[in-house]
Amino acid sequence: MLGDVLGRAGRKIAKKIIPQFKQSLDIDFVTINGENLAGGFGITSKIYDEMKLSGVDAFTMGNHWRDKSDVHLIRQQHKDLVLPQNLNGISGVEYAPEFHLPHRNKTINIINLMGNFAMKEEYKNPFEFLQKEKEHFISKVKSGSNIVIADIHAEASSEKQAMAWYYDGILAALIGTHTHTPTSDERLTENGTAFLTDVGMTGPYDSVIGMNKTRVLTKFINPSVKLPHEVAENDLWLCGFLVEVSPQTNLSLACHRIQCRGVDEENWLISSIV
Ligand SMILES: [Fe+2]
Ligand SMILES: [Fe+2]
């Protein structure tokens, strides 16, 4: 799972690393948070195609999910674009979609939920979704057929951590996204849930959460100034979370936080992080 992949620079690193990861580490399934792929805001059809070619199996989203209108067409055509299940007034998002891994005889469910703290829009209470689906997911995991993973897209660490504990022993993995700032609290609980409060952004860190720092500062200092954001380009970091799942329990055996700072995108080698 890679955190919010941001703009051209983020895409470039992700496209380079994902095929290497899949090949060298025998990775079955790659998800990325795709809400910032297109210049920091949303996703386009062209970018969706590019990322699929690099080996992305599924995309999760967040508050920027509809910043580009292409998203409506993409979601009609492809079920691997996962939208948060607690969006208000959007039909067809209410269930965590299933992805089949035939060679492992497994199905992966992806939960993607929005937190409500400090968001511009209001979302349905994510805990209501989790409460409603809890028994369903417990039986799927226990039956041996399904692995359940979650991307919780939220500003508040408290919301993300509470959700992880609520689904402890049900989820193979939960990663937090949205803040674009990685935390270093990765853990594997006694009950087999791998968890990281925020995986961070894959993109330019010579910035304020991915955006040109001079422009952001100007806007903070002079709030009346109308100045569009501009994506930053320098100091690229790759941030992700690698999870090893037991075929017996459908829960995790190990997890690794991946954080590579100052990626030289021309001379990138998987050996530099693993
Ligand atoms: Fe984001
Ligand atoms: Fe976000």
Automatic annotation (TrEMBL):
Record carries keyword Metal-binding: yes
Source species, domain of life: Bacteria
Binding site for Fe cation 1: 4, 35-36, 180
Cited Pfam families: YmdB
Active site: 64
Molecular functions (GO terms): 2',3'-cyclic-nucleotide 3'-phosphodiesterase activity; metal ion binding
Binding residues annotated for Fe cation 2, in chain numbering: 35, 63, 153, 178
Annotated keywords: Metal-binding
Keyword Metal-binding listed: yes
Protein name: Metallophosphoesterase
Organism for this UniProt entry: Silvanigrella aquatica
Organism lineage string: Bacteria, Pseudomonadati, Bdellovibrionota, Oligoflexia, Silvanigrellales
